[in-house]
Structures are given as C-alpha cells and as structure tokens.
UniProtKB/TrEMBL annotation:
One of its GO terms (biological process) is chorismate biosynthetic process. It comes from the Bacteria. This is Shikimate dehydrogenase. PANTHER family: BIFUNCTIONAL 3-DEHYDROQUINATE DEHYDRATASE_SHIKIMATE DEHYDROGENASE, CHLOROPLASTIC, SHIKIMATE DEHYDROGENASE. One of its GO terms (molecular function) is NADP binding. SUPFAM superfamilies: Aminoacid dehydrogenase-like, N-terminal domain, NAD(P)-binding Rossmann-fold domains. It comes from Aurantimicrobium minutum. Residues 9-90 form the Shikimate dehydrogenase substrate binding N-terminal domain.
Amino acid sequence: MTSITTLAVVGHPIGHSLSPVLHQAAYQELGLDWKYLAVDVQPGELSKFIDSTDDTLRGLSVTMPHKTAALEIADDIDLISEQTQSVNTLFFDHSSGQCTTHGFNTDVSGIVNACHDVGVVSARHVAVIGGGATASSAVVAAAELGAEHVSVIARNPQKAFHLEQVGQRAGVNVSVTPLSQIEDVSPVDLAISTLPGDIEQSLHLLSRTPHAALLDVAYSPWPSRRGTEWASSGGEVISGLRMLAHQALIQVRIFVHGNPFEKLPNEESVKRAMFESVSL
C-alpha cells in the first residue's frame, strides 16, 4: 500500500482554521494526492506531537501558540524567521536519509501581499497592535513596506519590548506604547492588529491619516467589530483571510519544492483555486 503524504496545521484552538481548505484546493489543482489536516496541539506539546508522527508527515503550518516552539525545533531557519524569531512553517526533509527540519516564516510575505492587494504599497508610520509572535512579523512587514517608524501598542508593554530588537534587525525604529495610552500615538498610515478574533479591542482612539488602512490578522469572526468600526470612519479594512491565503501559497511552494522562492507549476491557477476556495 502506498503511503499518503500528510501535512497539517497545528495550533490551539484550531477548529476555526481555513488552512485545510486553502491547502487542499492547491494540492487538488496540482494533481497531488496529499492529505492536509487540522490538529489541535496543546501549548508546550508541539515537540511531543512531532515525535509521535512518521515519515509520511511532510510539513506543518504552525499557528498560535507554537511559533516560538517551532523556531526552537527547526534545525535551520530562513532569514525572515531569524529577523522575527518566529517560525510558522516546518518542512521535514528526508532527502539525505535522515530528517532535517527546516523552519520558515511566511507571515511577513502574507501581510505585505495582502496590503498590496488593496493598493497599500507603502506606509511611513505603522501601528502594530499586540505583542506576540505575529506582531514580530508585522514589524518586519512594516519595514518591507518602507515604514520609518512602528508604534507597537500592547496591553502589557513589558512583553512587547522584544519587538524593539526585531525592529533593529529589520532596520526600522520601534517604540512601545501601553494600550491605555493609545490616543498619544501620532497619526498612522497603516494599522496591523495581531489580536485574536475573540478579543474585541476598539481602535477608535488611534489617530490615523485620511484613508489609513487596517489589516486585521484575525478572520474569525468576520467582519470583526474593530474592522467594522474602522470602515465606518472611512478607512480601508483588509481581512486577515487575505493574509492567510497569501502566506499559504508560499507554504505550498515550501511543501512542494522545499523552497519559498520556487514558483509552482501553473502557479496563477493554483493561486486562483486557493483564493476561490475561501471566497476571495
């Protein structure tokens, strides 16, 4: 019997994830009989889960709360993972006869490309709301969008000061502001909320330039309350689902080729199938 190549998204919670829909659409379009699962892995249990799998597991998409653990598990990491200190993709390479675990970060490209989709190609001042692993990707994405300054707004600033070092590695100045002082932040061109969907944090006190955009990384539920609030005042709102789809396309490249830069066969058709699968 031929073993079926398996991939999975791991996180906690994971039931809301649309990664299986996106990835299965890609592999079907590519003619690959691969299986992609959603697995609920408790905090601190990622290594144990990987140890329980066999050689049919080709790779993992990694979401909250395992991105730091994935960084520690990887035998080597790409440049973006090094800058962010966050890994959201693990590729298990058996080509040498033993398993080498490669770590990648596709969140940064997901954020940048989601912004490009709606015409946001640059932003001088960016606000990042939240202080976790996805926030570090948001800081690097802001640098790629040409930001001169990133204001990190966090409920617990002590847990967000590490993002100043992320900014140094990415070449952008970062300051950390307590959420209670959000009104003191100077007007922003782009806000990136990295808060989970079940945290309904209003951003109405955040000053913004005319037509400033909000990328809300959370996509369930959608539209989020903060997204609806932002749009009602005339701002552009970018769904986290668009970010998810863009970063998933890079993950598919990694899982197929082991290389985030090597395009897929008929990639435009694959991308179209993926985006249509989640109604984008």
